[in-house]
Amino acid sequence: MNALSSLLSPLGVGTGTLQDTLKLVVIGGTMETARRASVSAWNGFVDSFFLTAHFSEEDYPYDWLMHWLSKQPAWGRSREFEITTRSAGRNSLCETTAGDLEDDEEDDDSLVHGRRKRKVAFQPSLDTTHTIYYRGHWLRITRGKRYPDFGGSTLKISVVARNNDILKKLVLEAKREYEKDAEHRVHIFLADTTYGCWRWNGARQKRPMSSIVLQPGVKDMLLADCKDFLCSEEWYAERGIPFRRGYLLHGVPGSGKTSLIHSLAGELGLDIYVVSLSSKGMSDNTLTTLMGHVPTRCILLLEDLDAAFTRSVSRDSSSTGTPPATTSSTTTSSTSTTAESDGSTLSLSGLLNSLDGVAAAEGRLLFATTNHIERLDPALSRPGRMDVWVNFTHATKWQAEGIFKCFFPSKSSAVVTTTESDTTDPSQKNLPVPKRKAAAHAIPLLSEDEISELAKRFAAAIPEDELSVAALQGYLLKNKTRPNECVDEVDEWVIEQRETREKLKKEKAEKEAKEKKEAEEREKKEKEEKDAKEKEEKEAKEKLERKEARLKAKKASAASKSDSLVSVDSTTEPTPAPATATPTTDEPSSSSSSESETSTGVEADTEESVTSEEESDKVDVPVKDGAKKEKWIAVKSQPMPAAATPVAEPQPETPAVEEVAPPPP
Ligand SMILES: Nc1ncnc2c1ncn2[C@@H]1O[C@H](COP(=O)(O)OP(=O)(O)OP(=O)(O)O)[C@@H](O)[C@H]1O
């Protein structure tokens, strides 16, 4: 210590200060170690005594528990919140929590500037733990993230208990409550082709069956068939028939196909899984994966089945899937290009396999809708895949009357709060339940007789099977507060509709004719261009061939020339010494050919050049002094036997390759 104090004395630090600092360090360290030890001991204790259950956002129990938790006051009293206006999970029911801001809002349905007020809700933050007392047990509940980067919530519930009975009770209770609250909603799931999974798209209010007006018996038949199917699993199993049922709803647009499916889903308490076959990235594999992940009891909806066929859904790689008569080459090429460009490689066989292949889910009700049944491949619509076919037509008079009664409930039905009414008319059975809150607009309530009378008059004015039910609905919506005027003006409206339809038809025909004309012109132009190109190519080819022929001829003539020279040299008398020096062997031909090329063209050139070369052995060459001399060519490189070439006697003045002057005549 003395040594230490002597060491520190020059620095001005006293021994006492140092000691105090050391003491603080030791005490602090000890305390931190003790804290960590106790935390880890507590965690060990928790791990050994607590039962822990994990719930993932992708599965239903998560929704049940989130819904249950949202009703627990302790969950709402959390001291760390996320404030959100968005739905956290697939169940919009779970976004409201106890203690949310809605308590202060008087009217949920009130509108601000024509928009519904946004609901603001508290949600306990991620990674915070809440303790809730439930049936004599303390539950420790933590909401966490499944993947730190990609999101996806999980729920962890721990409880001190000997067995997991308490957790089972909790999940069952949460499920019951959820189902009770979700009773009036239909959940919609959409196919995500990127990840090959289903995404929750929203929960819609159930649509009463009574609001769908179809020909008598159609709704009842469908409902009974679906119910019968859902409770016949054993019957199917005993007979070895795959437990699936398919319904094909086909017919004109706006006739209630989709609405009926929504309504049936509500009535049967099923969720709807919608897949669009023409969506981007749809392939055989994706579809098979999606179909394999459809839950057992649900409605699988393939909307606008025929639309898939305009996107080259083919049974094999070469066919388009559409009946041959309707397949134009242009359509095929354009559709296949589109399919390739957006990565859609769905084939009809892939679709069929996914519907009833080994991996296809059982227990689901398959509904397919189409506006063009004639475009469907028979394999797709055969019994076993589509067991029940329902045709939807334009509105009949019966439907017109029914829909009018739906829009203008009579005094007596307006006060009925249940969905059952005692009228004998099936279209009046299960009239839509009156809204909980009075509508902003005042609908004059007429007596039942008055409404019946008006409905009959309305139906009489509607032409049979000419206008869609959706169109009638549009007209009634426009006149929802004026039942009498609505009927008075309906004749006028029908005329208007006809005129509009005619106009649209005419415009469409004109547009089509214009497009056709343009297409023809384009085709003609393309053909002309193609012909011109072909002609050009042909000419170029011919020119090339002629050139090649000329070259060949040149070569041949050169060869024959040298041969003939050799033979001439060897047989003729020796030539006297040349008068003038001559250029090399090819000089005469090249000069004459170039001359002819410029003057007479290619053919003349070829002939002339050949002729000139042929004649070049012996040409009358005008000599300066006017005397005509014969032109002789000798090739130096040609070895000539000494005995046979007396003319080749080397002359001292004669160059090696030269034009020799023939002997004077
Ligand atoms: N038979 C009907 N009964 C009641 N409402 C109908 C009926 N038909 C059509 N509608 C109304 O018309 C609108 C369009 O109906 P929906 O979408 O069901 O027709 P769709 O046949 O599926 O048409 P698309 O073939 O174009 O998809 C909806 O708002 C629906 O309320």
TrEMBL record:
Residues 316-344, 556-603, 641-665 have a biased composition (Low complexity). Belongs to the AAA ATPase family. BCS1 subfamily. It catalyses: ATP + H2O = ADP + phosphate + H(+). Gene3D superfamilies: P-loop containing nucleotide triphosphate hydrolases. Keywords: ATP-binding, Hydrolase, Membrane, Mitochondrion, Mitochondrion inner membrane, Nucleotide-binding, Transmembrane, Transmembrane helix. SMART domains: AAA (SM00382), BCS1_N (SM01024). Residues 313-344, 501-665 are annotated as: Disordered. It holds the Pfam family BCS1_N. Residues 243-393 form the AAA+ ATPase domain. It comes from Favolaschia claudopus. SUPFAM superfamilies: P-loop containing nucleoside triphosphate hydrolases. One of its GO terms (cellular component) is mitochondrial inner membrane. InterPro entries: AAA+_ATPase, AAA_lid_BCS1, ATPase_AAA_core, ATPase_AAA_CS, BCS1_N, Mitochondrial_chaperone_BCS1, P-loop_NTPase. This is P-loop containing nucleoside triphosphate hydrolase protein.
